[in-house]
C-alpha cells in the first residue's frame, strides 16, 4: 500500500499528541477534540462551512455509534435504582453473607460477588446492590471498611469493567477505534484480564495484611453521612429517589414478592447468558438481549411495587438512568468523534476524496508508514499501549480515552503486522483500571461513600497493587503478541 502521509495525517497525529498531553496534565480534552475535528474537516472539505458542518456531523456519527452502549447502561442503572428502592437487592445478596466468616473470605467473597454482579449491572450500580448488605457482615468478621472498598473497586471497577463481557461497552469502543471486531478484543482480553485481576487483588490483600500487622494500616474512615451513593439530591427534587419522595416502594412490596423477584431476576439474566452462547449472539445482538430483559424488569417491577403509580414511577427510573448514562458518556462523545475520524468516519462524513488515493484510513496509513521507517518491537508496542491506556485514564472516566488506545493499538498492530487485538485489549485494561474507579479519587466515590472511607485513602491503597498488576500484565502481553 502507499505509505506516504499527507497533511491530514500529520494534523491528526498532532492532535493525538495534544490530547495525550492534556490527559497527562489532567485537563479536559473536549476543546482539543473539537478543534481537531474542525481542522481535519477543513482540510478534508476545503471550506470553512464544511469544517463547521463536519464538526456537528462527527458528533452525530459518534452518538450513533455509541447509542446502544449509552442505552444499555442507562437501562441497567434504572433497574438497579428500582432494585435498591424496593429492597430486592438485599434479598439477592443475603444468601452470600453467611459464607463470609474470615477477613480473607470476606475480601474474596465481596470481591467475587461484586465482580459477578458488575458484569450485568456495571460497577457503580452494583455497589448499591451489594454494598449496604455485605459491608456490615465484612466488618463483623474483621475486614476493615477500607478493605471492603478495595475489594469492590478492584473486582468490580477493575476486573469486571475492564473485561465488560456481558454489556460489551468497553470492547465496542476500543474495537471500533482499532478497526477490528468486538469478539476479537474480548477473546484477546481474557488472559490479560485474568492476569491483571489475580496479580492486583492478591497484591492488595497481601499489602493490607502486612500493614495491619506492622501497624502501618489506616482505616481512612470519614464522618458517616458525608457522602451519598447517588449524590445528595434536594428533598422532593427531580433527582430524588422514589422512596425519598414519599412512595415507600420497599415497604409496599410484600416479602414474598421480593423473594420471588430476587430469584427470578438472576434466572432471567442467566437465561440471557445461555442464549448468548447457544445462539452465538455478540455485539449489538448481545446488548439488545440484555437491555431488553432489563427494560422488561423495570416495567414489571414498577407496576408491582408502585401499583397505581407504576406507570409514572417507571418513567422516573428511566429518566434517572438516562441522566446517569449521558452524564457518564457526555465527555466521551467528542473524544470518540475525533478518534472515529482515524478510521471509518472521515470518508463517511467527507467522502472518499478526503484521503489520498490508495489510503486505508489515517491510522492504517500512519501504521504502515511507521512499519517502513521505524523498527517496532512487541515490547515497545506493549509498553506504549499500557502507558497510553494509563494516561487516558487520568481523567477519571476510564472510557473517554479508550478510543485513543484502540487507535494507537491499530497503528502499532499495523506496524508489527499482527497483535492488534492483544494491544487493543491491553490499552483497554490499562485505561479502565486507572480511570474506571481504582486509582483516580473522583472515580472512587461510589465505593468510598457506601463504605464510609476517604476516596483519597482508597486511591492510595490501590496504587501499588494496580501498578504491580499493570507491569505483570504488560509482560504477559509481550509474550502473547
From TrEMBL:
The protein's name in its UniProt record: Uncharacterized protein
Claim: Nucleotidyltransferase is one of the keywords in the record: no
Keywords, sorted A to Z: Membrane, Transmembrane, Transmembrane helix
Membrane-spanning parts: 6-25, 32-60, 66-84, 104-121, 127-143, 188-208, 260-277, 283-305, 317-341, 369-391, 398-417, 429-451, 463-480
Organism: Paenibacillus albicereus
Keyword Calcium on entry: no
Lineage start: Bacteria, Bacillati, Bacillota, Bacilli, Bacillales
Amino acid at each position: 500500500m502507499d505509505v506516504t502521509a499527507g497533511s491530514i495525517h500529520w494534523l491528526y497525529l498532532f492532535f493525538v499528541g495534544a490530547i495525550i498531553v492534556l490527559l497527562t496534565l489532567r485537563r479536559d480534552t473536549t476543546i482539543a477534540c473539537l478543534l481537531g475535528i474542525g481542522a481535519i474537516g477543513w482540510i478534508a472539505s476545503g471550506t470553512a462551512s464544511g469544517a463547521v458542518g463536519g464538526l456537528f456531523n462527527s458528533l452525530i456519527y459518534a452518538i450513533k455509534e455509541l447509542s446502544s452502549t449509552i442505552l444499555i447502561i442507562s437501562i441497567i442503572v434504572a433497574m438497579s435504582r428500582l432494585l435498591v428502592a424496593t429492597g430486592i437487592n438485599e434479598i439477592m445478596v443475603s444468601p452470600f453473607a453467611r459464607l463470609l466468616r474470615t477477613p480473607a473470605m470476606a475480601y474474596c467473597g465481596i470481591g467475587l460477588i461484586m465482580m459477578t454482579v458488575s458484569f450485568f449491572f456495571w460497577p457503580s450500580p452494583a455497589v448499591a446492590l451489594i454494598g449496604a448488605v455485605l459491608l456490615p457482615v465484612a466488618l463483623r468478621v474483621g475486614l476493615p471498611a477500607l478493605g471492603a472498598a478495595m475489594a469492590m473497586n478492584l473486582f468490580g471497577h477493575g476486573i469486571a469493567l475492564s473485561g465488560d463481557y456481558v454489556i460489551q461497552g468497553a470492547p465496542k469502543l476500543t474495537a471500533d477505534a482499532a478497526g477490528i471486531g468486538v469478539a476479537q478484543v474480548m477473546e484477546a482480553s481474557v488472559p490479560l484480564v485474568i492476569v491483571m485481576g489475580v496479580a492486583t487483588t492478591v497484591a492488595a490483600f497481601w499489602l493490607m495484611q502486612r500493614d495491619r500487622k506492622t501497624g502501618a494500616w489506616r482505616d481512612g474512615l470519614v464522618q458517616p453521612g458525608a457522602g451519598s451513593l447517588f449524590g445528595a439530591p434536594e428533598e422532593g427534587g427531580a433527582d430524588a429517589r422514589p422512596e425519598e419522595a414519599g412512595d415507600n416502594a420497599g415497604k409496599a412490596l410484600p416479602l414474598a414478592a421480593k423473594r420471588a423477584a430476587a430469584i427470578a431476576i438472576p434466572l432471567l439474566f442467566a437465561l440471557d447468558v445461555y442464549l448468548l452462547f447457544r445462539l452465538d449472539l455478540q455485539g449489538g445482538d448481545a446488548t439488545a438481549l440484555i437491555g431488553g430483559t432489563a427494560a422488561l424488569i423495570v416495567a414489571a417491577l414498577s407496576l408491582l411495587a408502585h401499583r397505581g403509580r407504576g406507570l409514572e414511577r417507571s418513567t422516573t427510573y428511566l429518566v434517572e438512568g438516562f441522566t446517569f448514562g449521558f452524564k457518564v458518556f457526555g465527555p466521551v462523545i467528542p473524544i470518540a468523534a475525533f478518534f472515529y475520524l482515524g478510521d471509518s468516519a472521515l470518508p463517511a462524513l467527507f467522502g472518499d476524496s478526503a484521503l489520498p488515493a490508495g489510503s486505508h484510513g489515517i491510522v492504517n496509513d500512519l501504521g504502515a508508514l511507521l512499519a517502513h521507517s521505524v523498527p517496532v518491537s512487541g515490547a515497545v508496542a506493549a509498553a506504549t499501549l499500557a502507558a497510553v491506556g494509563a494516561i487516558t485514564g487520568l481523567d477519571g472516566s476510564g472510557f473517554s480515552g479508550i478510543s485513543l488506545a484502540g487507535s494507537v493499538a491499530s497503528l502499532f498492530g499495523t506496524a508489527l503486522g499482527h497483535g492488534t487485538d492483544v494491544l487493543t485489549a491491553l490499552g483497554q485494561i490499562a485505561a479502565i483500571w486507572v480511570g474506571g474507579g481504582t486509582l483516580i479519587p473522583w472515580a472512587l466515590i461510589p465505593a468510598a461513600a457506601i463504605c464510609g472511607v476517604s476516596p483519597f485513602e482508597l486511591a492510595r491503597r490501590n496504587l501499588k497493587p494496580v501498578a504491580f498488576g499493570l507491569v505483570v500484565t504488560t509482560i504477559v502481553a509481550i509474550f502473547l503478541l
